[in-house]
Design brief:
The protein contains 7 helices and no strands. With 180 residues, it is mainly alpha-helical. The longest helix is centred in the C-terminal third of the chain and has 27 residues.
């Protein structure tokens, strides 16, 4: 299943970016997202060995031709990871327990390094819009309790992949509704 998923994503990335440094960056990001998804589903952990080097590689690739630029990449790390740090700290203060783990913050930072701050925020929004209704259904049907863990990394990875392929178009459409 992993190999088929990667093959499909790699083909889609080639069609989207063509032979370029952007394609190389997309392939690295997509590989990490697939691995993180599988590991988080199975073990409810996002390994630092994937996310931390991913942050560094995203920053490095931002410097290349067609890259997003170091400033946008650094801001992406801060915003992408910061959103989840605020959620983690806030849930500890309000609920007395973290609402998610630090791996989610590092994954958000990695997405920001590759995609920039705007698409990192879009990735977070899409992950909530996809994962939230599923969590509500699991709670409503009794398959999960309120305190049962539900891995968020796969939803964040999906939001990141969607943002990679269609994020700029989604943002242009959204803001066009208000500004156009």
């Amino acid at each position: 299943m992993v190999e088929i998923t990667c093959a499909g994503l790699f083909a889609a990335a080639y069609l989207r970016f063509g032979p370029s440094l952007q394609l190389a960056a997309a392939l690295v990001l997509l590989s990490a997202l697939v691995a993180i998804t599988g590991i988080d589903f199975d073990h409810q952990i996002i390994p630092d060995v994937l996310s931390l080097p991913g942050i560094a590689l995203g920053l490095l690739l931002s410097l290349g031709p067609g890259g997003i630029g170091l400033g946008d990449s650094v801001l992406g790390v801060l915003v992408g990871g910061g959103v989840f740090i605020v959620i983690i700290v806030g849930s500890r203060l309000v609920l007395g327990q973290p609402g998610m783990g630090g791996g989610d913050a590092k994954l958000g930072a990695m997405l920001g390094a590759f995609l920039g701050w705007k698409l990192a925020l879009l990735s977070a929004l899409l992950s909530v819009l996809i994962g939230g209704p599923l969590a509500a259904v699991l709670l409503a049907t009794g398959h999960k309790g309120r305190k049962d863990p539900l891995p968020f990394g796969p939803f964040l990875a999906l939001g990141g992949a969607l943002s990679l392929f269609w994020g700029d178009a989604l943002l242009a459409w959204y803001f066009g509704q208000f500004l156009g």
